[in-house]
Write a structure and sequence with these properties.
Radius of gyration: 24 Å
Structural class: mainly alpha
Shape: globular
Largest sheet: none
Number of strands: 0
Distance between the termini: 16 Å
């Protein structure tokens, strides 16, 4: 069940209506349980086979975390933490990486070991991070024991369950425990509806058309030419941003419908002028998790520069491997790590480039790394790079002939080019969702925007595709 589907809209209306009614009649505990059950149902629609594992893992982590909080013996606490990490990483490793390791083992030794096709459970990468953060904080003594209901709301709250934003228990549980949470807040409700509509528009009107255009090229590179390749590369770069930020906006908007603030996940990343800044703006909750639980585990304040750069590379290696079971993701992580190290190196020495050049190089790096991310393996990404820089087809053509071919290509693909131009204008120059909603107050203009975006999105929903990050 994806957010931009008719079935989900019906689900959301029913869940929200019952939740509000239960709170209105002062059945707050029942309202929380209703929301938990609805969240489990939501997850089950996308992963029925994995639902028992998910439920078991969630309760297992609650038992481990609660025991960690009350245990004082350090050796016992370490054992419990290791047990919890093994369970979480074991499930993630089996479902996401088992085939990757088997395939590489067979390639290395010439074997034919097979474990069959393993289906990746939806959202496993995201809720695993939340569970690991919870256990580590329990071990560190940075959390208190929560009721099972509040804990389950933190883990299973359906708006952020599948693709994030990745939430932290310290940010979410106190909101569900607050006496204000059950009260209807008109301003929050309509702000949430506005943000939800923006996210829906991003996904349906911008991301999906660009993704639909780009996918065939990356699936069959040899069948397409130079112009098609560049338009596809740019389309995928923009579509990934609007797809994932659209999902985040919809999640944040739905959170506000339930009176819950979810963390911001994007801050105009394509306006960045170096990769250090880019990763502070892109998928911010993931970057924060990696910084808190990977980078800071390697680098401590006062360590030498080598340790700092090593920690950066370790963090991005983990990020790359987390994103997918393939060598292209590992290379993607390493390349991003190198770019971030370069940006830090320049920052520490107070070196700078002209603003326009810095932005251009950063965005070019984003496009180049996105190609690694979306191609069919490393060989596929090499084939894409070759196609983008293969101008042999123009060898016997004059400038006028090249311009004619470009014009013909543009006329055949005018719709995609128009959508791309609009997407680039929004991504490069427009205010982002947070900036738009900073001084939100419901009025005629906002009501019209909500209505138009939702109506147009609903009309297009019969052809909506899955969110791109569902595969992770």
């Amino acid at each position: 069940m994806i957010f931009t589907s008719y079935g989900f809209f019906v689900f959301l209306i029913i869940v929200l209506a019952v939740y509000r009614l239960l709170n209105y009649f002062k059945f707050e505990p029942v309202a929380k349980i209703w929301l938990i059950l609805a969240s489990f149902y939501f997850y089950g629609q996308g992963g029925k086979d994995f639902l028992p594992y998910f439920v078991g893992s969630v309760f297992f982590n609650y038992i481990i975390g609660s025991t960690l909080i009350v245990t004082e013996d350090l050796r016992s606490k370490k054992f419990l933490l290791v047990l919890g990490l093994v369970e979480n990483l074991g499930l993630l490793g089996y479902f996401k990486y088992a085939n990757f390791f088997v395939d590489n083992y067979n390639a290395l030794v010439g074997g034919n070991l097979s474990i069959g096709k393993i289906i990746l459970p939806i959202g496993i990468s995201f809720f695993t991070f939340q569970l690991i953060a919870y256990l580590v904080d329990c071990y560190r003594g940075e959390t208190k024991e929560y009721s099972v209901v509040d804990y389950l709301l933190f883990i299973t709250f359906f708006p952020q369950l599948i693709v994030g934003p990745i939430v932290h228990h310290k940010d979410i549980v106190p909101q569900f425990q607050s006496q204000q949470q059950s009260k209807f807040d008109r301003d929050k409700f309509f702000l949430g509806l506005f943000i939800f509509a923006i996210g829906c528009g991003k996904k349906v009107l911008l991301a999906d058309p660009l993704t639909s255009f780009a996918k065939p090229f990356f699936a069959n590179v040899s069948e397409y030419g130079f112009f098609h390749g560049w338009l596809s590369a740019l389309s995928y770069t923009l579509s990934y941003y609007f797809d994932l930020s659209g999902y985040a906006d919809m999640a944040i908007g739905m959170g506000l419908l339930f009176n819950v603030h979810l963390p911001e996940n994007f801050n105009s990343p394509y306006k960045a002028r170096n990769f250090r800044d880019y990763w502070r703006r892109w998928h911010m909750t993931l970057s924060k998790f990696l910084s808190d639980y990977v980078f800071r585990s390697v680098y401590k304040k006062g360590d030498k520069s080598f340790k700092f750069y090593f920690a950066v590379m370790t963090t991005f290696f983990v990020s790359g491997f987390w994103h997918g079971a393939g060598w292209q993701f590992i290379v993607w992580g390493i390349v991003n790590g190198i770019f971030v190290c370069m940006a830090h190196f320049m920052y520490r020495r107070k070196w700078s480039l002209p603003s326009g050049l810095a932005w251009f190089l950063t965005f070019a790096g984003v496009v180049g790394t996105r190609i690694l991310f979306v191609s069919k393996g490393l060989r596929g990404s090499i084939a894409v790079y070759r196609r983008l820089f293969d101008v042999s087809g123009f060898a016997n053509m004059g400038l006028s002939e090249i311009l004619f071919e470009l014009g013909k290509f543009a006329s055949y693909n005018a719709y995609t080019i128009l959508v791309l131009i609009i997407a680039m204008g929004i991504g490069f120059f427009a205010r982002n969702t947070r900036e738009i909603t900073e001084d939100f107050s419901l009025g005629y203009k906002h009501a019209v925007i909500i209505a138009v975006l939702l109506v147009v999105s609903l009309i297009q929903m019969s052809i909506v595709s899955d969110f791109l990050y569902f595969q992770f």
